[in-house]
Fold this protein.
Amino acid sequence: MLFDLLIHFLMLSLLATGGAISLAPEMHRYMVSETGLLTDAQFTSSIAIAQSAPGPNILFVTVLGWQAMGPWGAFATTVGVMAPSAVLTLMVNRLSLSRSDTVWMRALREGLAPVVIALMLATAWILSESWWGEIGVLGLVAITAMLTVVTRIAPVVLIAAGAVIGGLGLLG
Amino acid sequence: MALQGFGGVLPIAERVLVHQRRWMTPKEFVESLAIAQSLPGPNIVNLALMVGDRFFGLRGAVAAFIGMMAFPTVIVLLLTLLYQTYAELEITRRILLGMSAVSVGLIAGMGLRLCRTQGHYRAGWLIGLGVFLLIAVMHKPLGMVLLALGLPSFLLRWWQMRRSV
């Protein structure tokens, strides 16, 4: 099982266009729906924990692994998701294929931008699915999304506010 | 640097690399970032690898990677342990529910905000809609969706750019 987890994340690594969050739907499919390694609540809380701490948001992958299978699980998911893309980055950097103004680099970036955006929205959708009918929770999701679009409040402030609102029992 | 980056390390990286240490010019920074964003993997980690590799070779890349990841990993794991220790309590469940809702809202908001940058590539809206339906509603595997829509989107954009030059 641990080995399967490692292999799965190794394969995902090179699909991580536009950051780790674009992998969340696929990780959710594998870890929650397919293998049952995690519950919905555990999956979403992993993202919340990673976002509330300083550092790269990719760390939610580490938390996912830890919650599923302890330290070795964390090791498997983290190394799995990091290693292939890190090697590729260094290779491209060395070969200096990497002039950012070459047409194919720009086409790659711009062509995949709508895919990445759609994956973010799909992530939000999938993670909200377990809250259907819970008006309070969905309301908080919507308000946060709106605030993110129209203001520049730091994410950590919003998450702290969410912790307080939840802790007071306002969400049921 | 990594520790100062609540909700994203990128702005801090720009300030330190370009303005404080002057290891890169602003133009070099933007170019490196563009490459880091084009490649798979987390942007900020890719950027750290590239900067480290450029100045100190492979050792630099490894050092930059560890520097970027070590402390944040420890902190996040401590939080996870804390959460797991008290996961049974009702209050923990409530707090995490609030934080989770905000996290999901942040991701949705980020996606919506980025939509505004997408005026010039019209076919992109259709591609995006297709990706959303396949992934969110139909729960199709990511690899398949990237092959079916991501690859054509890249080729289409490439063709459009070649033609306009």
Observations:
- Chain A touches chain B through 109 residues (CB under 8 Å).
